[in-house]
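Ticket #4471: complex job returned nothing on first submit. Input attached below:
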Amino acid sequence: MWNTIYGWLDERIGFNDLYKSILDRAEPKGNWWNTLGSATLFLFVVQAVTGIFLTAYYTPSPDHAYDSITYIMNGVAFGWLIRGIHHWGATVMVVLVFVHMLRVFVTASFKYPRELTWLIGVGLLLLTLGMGFTGYLLPWNQRSYWATIVGTQIAGTVPFIGSFVLRALRGGPDLSALTLQRFFSAHIWMLPVALGGLIGIHLYLVIRHGESHWPRRDD
Amino acid sequence: MADKEVSRRDFIKVTTTIVGGLIGAALGLPAIAYLLDPAFKAGAKEGWVPVGKIADMQIGVPHPFSFTRVQVNGWERTSNTRGGLALLRSADSNDILVLNSRCTHLSCTVNWKEETQAYVCPCHDARFTKEGAVVSGPPPRPLDRYAEFHITDAGVLEIFYQES
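Support reply: We reran it on our side without changes. The output follows.
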């Protein structure tokens, strides 16, 4: 029975080919440093799942944001766990993305034919930092409020267009309900969708080119 | 032993499945509890609610009253207004019928209509007798009653309210 269903699906989807090209592909002899990309991908999935769960209670409004998070932490079963994973996962993800980038740089894995993989990786780095920046405001406590004041003020120092960038980020001259709402929108929709798309291309390129071997003495 | 040796590949497969399953369960089960948590929370507490003075009631005329129950839901206080009808049947101030004015069909509030001598529900035109029995319309059962009530020394009717 199960075999029949599996066979029917396999004939149309081709699990075997998928398995071979994605999970069973040839790898150069590597070490733990080669696992950082996968670790980052794992964290992205964890962040996506815990983030989706957080939206079941979180309210992006100045009146309720702080209270709703207090409620998640103290009032909901395992709310502390879900938010704790999301909170620490965010920090670890930024660290992992950086270390992954360093590894690729040090082993010169960004060279032909993998330049595009690197460039997309730069996009992923920026988007990850964007996720950190927008997510930081959402608890709407003193620290996140002032961090966003400072962060947007820094963006405001860009020559010529600075004050426009500041107003575009804040949704006006001041940090307000509009800021919280647009940061929330960016945090749960725009940036994750862009991240997901770029991750797809990044992975496709990794699978297409295979992983680079560790540099030899004469490389 | 040699012929039972587990290949490296199989060992990795099995360990990955087990570890992955453990992580999935350790995260998945709390996640379900997290989502369903509000459904397990207890509702508003029961208690005695004063609804009106006996002196204000006329014998044989339903006396409408309403009261507000406050419940903390999440980080917000939700207040719900409940209503009822107290009917003083005779000069004996304990001979009172206290009805819940929430229609037993779909929870709209019924009103006493003097001209038809019936409680009428504005939503689907259901009618109930003065005692709460269904005269016409879709309600499946008579109006609910506040069976427990007492009159304080100051002559105030108090009902025992329970979240249903």
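Residues 8-40 of chain B form the longest helix (33 residues). Closing as resolved unless it happens again.
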